[in-house]
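Hi X.,

You mentioned you wanted examples for the new student's onboarding notes, showing what a folding record looks like when two proteins sit in one file. Here is a clean example. The first protein comes first, with its sequence line followed by its structure tokens.
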Amino acid sequence: MLCLLAEAAGIPVPSSKRGEPPFSMDANLLHISYEGNALEDPWAEPDESMFTRSVSPEDAPDKPTYIEIGFEKGDPVTLDGAQLSPAAMLTALNKVAGENGIGRIDIVESRFVGMKSRGVYETPGGTVLLTARRAMESITLDRGESHLKDDIMPKYAELVYNGFWFSPEREALQALVDKTQEFVTGTVRLKLYKGNVTVVGRKSPYSLYDPVIASFEDDKGLYNQADAGGFIKLQALRLRTLGVNRHKML
């Protein structure tokens, strides 16, 4: 019936939608998901003709594509130097990433209602943005900030997945995340090649990376390896105590 109504209104209907569809599709700017029917067997490989936003990695160009994404307080704002809105950014990244076979994933989810469900997703632009954002954070977040953000991400994702976007707990977590992003500003350079996104450069005016301290050569006396001795002894104290006492019990 829907196909007939669409045709009557002059809306093109893909041939895959005529008759019993082999799977269902739900799409938005960020991604497209495929579920049901032919995909219900988690052992069955999806047919290549199903994918609409990316080429197969095997069919992607033999030459890598390099791009640069600029961030301001955690938000991606430029692509190769051009200022873009969030929608324009995702649209452009979907295209270039999809052309390089990036963003496919095949997973079995644990649904909120209790069942497991197999889904196949294409998220080309989002995959690139996640990699780039993590790279930007790697040089601008303190270790404690980074670990805390990683700790709360599963809870944040669970709230969004289960439909609690407007819940007070999600808003509280959002405030914490926003605080961590105050200095996540700079540029990330990435290589896109046959389904892979590789970070090949990152820079920021707020970078915490100090090449002098990180050097394996002369660090100008900023780091004394002998200082590690006491640190290691303190860290190992509980393990030594545990080992001595438990050895007595054997």
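Then the second protein repeats the pattern, sequence line and then tokens:
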Amino acid sequence: MASSGSGYDLSSSTFSPDGRIFQVEYASKAVENAGTALGLKCRNGVVLCVEKPLLNKMLLPNSSRRIHTIDTHSGIAITGFVSDGRQMVNRGREECASYEETYGTKIPTKVLGDRLASYVHYFTLHGSLRPFGTAALIASYDPETKDHALQMIEPSGVSYQYYACAAGKGRQPARTELEKLNINKPDKAENIDVREGVKQLARIIHLLHEEGKDKPFELEMSWLCEESGWEHKGVPRDFIKEAVEWAKKDIAEAQDYESDEDEEMED
């Protein structure tokens, strides 16, 4: 009975006999069915990228955004239930404003992640509430320590810092592709920069997208880097277009190379 969730999935405050909270697992499943969100920590900044499905041909491309600025030096990307994500965005803005008003400095990256994670976790503790059906990727910069960070908050309220992370339906194959990038070399000069990071994230999103099966999508991208003055801003549209063209060309060349190899093996 416990494996199916029957009788133990009516409240997020109830554990099953084998130690599972099914309401939290259902919330995580909602995230897995949503568009892919990627985050990448580069040597000179952080890049966020979200695949936003266009559910209707009459939708305006810039409506219902998935990436938001919550402070001058902080941005957040959401995937899952967009309405739940908006509550996390609003809470993030409140935490940033409250910390600066109280202490007179920008909120440190770890404090921001911990506070948002605690807020999400609170909704898994009470039977009258339900967990958030969204995952959030946070890009932030601390002016005091001159350090930038990438964090991800899951529906369970767990928060980790990453070199690169992924959420949504393409999470597993995206992680495989992200692990191939130079992002955690001992010599930081060997790691990729944000401009290369934008291209690689665009390539991964298009690589995972299946034409004819998946819905059309809009690519949302932002960065927090030296080039933006360490302010969270959207990646210029011209550069996104250039990155997408490069990504499609790179994927096509890789597919042609694989086809040639297969033909040689058959011969």
